[in-house]
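This part of the workshop introduces the protein records we will be handling. Getting from the letters to the C-alpha cells is the skill we practise here. An example says more than a description, so a record of this kind follows:
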Amino acid sequence: MKITSRHIEKDGSGRITIVPEEDEDMYHLYNLIEQGDRVRAAAVRRVQSESSTGSIESHRVRLNLTIEVVKTTFDATGSSAPPDPSAAAVAAASTSSAANEKEVSRSAAVGGAGGDGATLQVAGRVVEENPHVKMGAYHTLDLEVNRALTITKESWDAVHLERLGESTDVSQRAEVGAVVLGDGTAAVCLLTGHMTVVRQRIDVPIPRKRKGLPATAADKATARFYVQVYNAVVKLLQLPALRLVILASPGFTRDSVYDFLFEEATRRGDKILIGSEARRKFLKIHCSSPHVHSLMEVLRSPEVNAQLKDTKFAREGQLLERFMKQLASDEL
C-alpha cells in the first residue's frame, strides 16, 4: 500500500489518499473503512441524456464520486463462488462472538474459488455534487488494486493508524507460499500475517488406470497437471521473497510434485528453482484433505512452526493457539 497524501488535524479528523498495490491491501482497506466514513474514488456510471430529436440515449461516464459509507463487502478470492463450508462456519462464529469487531480472520479468508484477486465494494450515498449524479443517490464503488482512493474520517484513532502503518510496511508482506494438492487438483496460495489468498486453482481430470488398458491417457493428464502446477508456482508465488513454500496433500502427490518441480526447473534452466537454497524453502507436509481449509491444520504442525519461529506470521499463530486453549479451559 502506498500513501500519496495525508492530512490529519490535531483532533484526529482528516483524509488520507491511498493506492492499494496488492490483494492484501484490499483486506487492510476493508478493516480501515467504516460506516460513516467518506470515500472518494473513480467510478463508472450509466447516464441518460435526451437528444435534440427527443430520444433518450444511455452511455457510460467515468467520474470521481464521494460517498458516505453504508456498507462494505470484501471477497478474498475475487469470485462469487461459494466458500468452503468450514471457512463459512468459522466466519459466522467470529461474527457472533465479536459483533463490534469488523475483522476477517485467516480462516474466513481461506477458501472459495480463486478468481482475479481480492475485491472490495463500498456502498453508500453520494455526498458531493457531480454533474452526472444527484446528491443522495445510492452508488457502489468497486475499489481496485493500483487505483487511488481517498478516505475521510471524523477520527483517525490509534487502531486505524496502526493498521495503516502495517499495510505500508514492506516487511509485513507474504512470507509463506502453499500448494494444497489432490488427485489432479491444486490450490496455489500466498499466506501473510493477516490472510490467505488463493492465487490460482488447478483442476485436471485424471482418468483411472485400469488393468489391461494402456495408461497413456492417465499419464498424459498427470504430466499436464504437473506442468500447470509448476507454471503457477514460478509465476505466482514470488519465490525469492518467500521464507517457506509448503506442499501439502493427503497422499503422496506432494512427493511427486516436489520431484517434478526441480527436474523441470533443471530442464528449463529456471534459476529460481535451481540449487540447494531453493530446495530448502520447500517443505512437504501431510494434510487430511486436498481442500484449502486444511491449511489450518498444516500451519499448526511442528515442522512449519520450526521454519517460521522468528516471523510475525508464527507469533500471531502461537498467540491465537494459546487464546483458543485458554478459551476452551475457562468455565463460563
The longest strand covers residues 56-75.
